[in-house]
Amino acid sequence: MDHTPKLLLEAAARIRQLAQNGLVYSEIEYDRERYGEILALSHRIVALVRDGGASETAIAALFPLETNYVTPKVDVRAAVFNARGEILLVQEKADGRWALPGGWADVGYTPCEVARKEVKEETGYDAEPLRLLAVDDQKTHPYPPALHYAYKLFILCRLTGGSPRAAFDTLGCGFFAEDALPPLSEERNLESQIRRMFRHYHNPGLPPTCD
Known about the structure:
Layout: H1 4-25, H2 29-49, H3 56-62, E1 73-81, E2 87-92, E3 98-99, E4 102-104, H4 111-123, E5 125-137, E6 150-162, E7 170-176, H5 191-202, E8 209-210
Parallel strand pairs: 1-6, 5-8
Antiparallel strand pairs: 1-4, 2-3, 2-7, 5-6
Helix pairs in contact: 1-2, 2-3
């Protein structure tokens, strides 16, 4: 497997963070010009990696200038099990593959509130968040190349009601046994992480993991 695209995107993300932080905190115009040039170079790297040369302007639009210190994005995923010990997954419209309900954290919501909201919006089920199972740094796991640097929070939830339905960004949902997992949307979660959720479900005393 060629890891070059992933390594280039990780390098571009770090360059972008340093450049944007420089633009936020530097009061010297000369330095601000140089930070602007460095930021543009980070966009060029991403443009070259993505689709063999996507528009640098389009890439820049994905990363609006921050007015404060640049930090990782937070992705919250809910691990919901039914009475048979099967895990709830949603089928993503983006790639037709399956993932734990979840997404980017919303401002004004706690992680548990995000988990509850995402489960309801994406599946129609009601779920009660119980406890944090894992905090994964995306760079320490074999994810495909990604534009954003992200932390992933996995929260165990108890199914409390509701009925299944599709959402605007999903094709449907279903419960799956550990030995019958469907093709996974690896931009969102990996098989190793899903299996770790099963281990926590079967062993409630396991402590949460953190990269």
